Write a sequence for this structure.
């Protein structure tokens, strides 16, 4: 399953009072997909890194009162209750479950089974219980334990893999440097690249790319002769070398500003203006790969939604593409719930109807 599909799974699980177990290789974005779900819905998230926790971190400390043993409330649960009082639904993320010590996993069992720990219950807001999500690496590839069948049986478990298109959507929304998103759009296989056994190379992961973006935002702090070593140190030798060459040659990659520069001061008020502009754009865009064209279209769309660019700029850009690629992008926006409104607003707003028909004809066929 593509990791980008987990949002739908988590929504279903929360509505159905189910728990979710996400299994996937390191660095592919398991934590980010949970964080994204929480952010999108304005929920409260508590993350427990179980491989680094002790039992007391999970269940609190015992104390005696009038001859009766009680357990103190752990701080993470206190924060969840505070959020629930503000009307926020909660998500409890149990990361690295299979790496946790056995006694910690056994303590977590009650959280998964009953949504409580001793006498402390996980919050419930407006009849919706706390969503519990766990994440692990595959046991056959990593030094992790097999989960107890009694624990595993309580989860809906999903093996997930990287999804370049989904990651690029996340990256654009989280201000990942455009040189990285454009590189991944052109070379999606480099998003999660692992070296062969025996190769002395660390490889690259979606997490590494996100961190690489943070580094690039501050790259001017170091001398230029160190940039290659820094990129290689973060992405590994093979991918790092490819990205360094791309990074140095990035000025030649087509960007939103390039599209605007080609359009220039054209008024786009007439059929003749549209034809002139999209033919000029076609000289640059006809040979674009599908994912690169889709990525650039997404960026132009974001600028349109922000009010920085007119709808017609997006229209002439799509019209300049290979028609099948343009139709695929158009159809994707029409059918996706989060872009359907944009699609219909666009359809109503573009004066150049012949261009609209040019793109939609392929979709209808």
């Amino acid at each position: 399953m593509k990791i980008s599909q987990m949002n739908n799974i988590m929504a279903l699980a929360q509505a159905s009072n189910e728990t979710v177990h996400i299994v996937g290789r390191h660095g592919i974005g398991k934590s980010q997909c949970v964080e994204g779900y929480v952010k999108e819905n304005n929920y409260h998230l508590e993350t427990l890194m179980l491989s680094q926790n002790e039992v007391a971190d999970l269940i609190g400390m015992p104390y005696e009162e009038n001859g009766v043993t009680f357990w103190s409330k752990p701080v993470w649960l206190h924060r969840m209750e505070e959020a629930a009082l503000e009307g926020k639904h909660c998500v409890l993320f149990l990361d690295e479950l299979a790496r946790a010590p056995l006694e910690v996993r056994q303590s977590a069992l009650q959280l998964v089974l009953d949504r409580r720990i001793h006498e402390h219950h996980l919050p419930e807001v407006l009849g919706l219980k706390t969503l519990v999500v766990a994440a692990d690496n595959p046991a056959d590839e990593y030094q992790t334990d097999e989960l107890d069948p009694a624990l595993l049986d309580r989860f809906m478990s999903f093996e997930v893999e990287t999804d370049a298109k989904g990651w690029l959507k996340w990256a654009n929304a989280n201000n990942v440097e455009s040189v990285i998103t454009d590189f991944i759009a052109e070379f999606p296989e480099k998003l999660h690249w692992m070296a062969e056994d025996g190769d002395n190379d660390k490889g690259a992961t979606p997490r590494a790319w996100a961190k690489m973006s943070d580094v690039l935002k501050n790259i001017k702090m170091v001398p230029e002769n160190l940039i290659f070593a820094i990129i290689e140190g973060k992405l590994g030798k093979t991918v790092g070398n490819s990205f360094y060459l791309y990074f140095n040659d990035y000025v030649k990659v087509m960007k939103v500003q390039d599209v605007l520069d080609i359009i220039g001061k054209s008024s786009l008020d007439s059929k003749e203006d549209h034809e002139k502009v999209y033919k000029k754009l076609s000289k640059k865009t006809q040979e674009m790969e599908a994912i690169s064209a889709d990525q650039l279209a997404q960026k132009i769309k974001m600028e349109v939604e922000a009010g920085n660019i007119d709808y017609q700029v997006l229209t002439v850009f799509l019209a300049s593409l290979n028609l099948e690629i343009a139709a695929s992008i158009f159809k994707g926006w029409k059918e996706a719930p989060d872009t359907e409104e944009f699609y219909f607003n666009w359809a109503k707003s573009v004066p150049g109807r012949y261009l609209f028909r040019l793109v939609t004809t392929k979709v209808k066929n």
Summary: The chain has a mean pLDDT of 82.
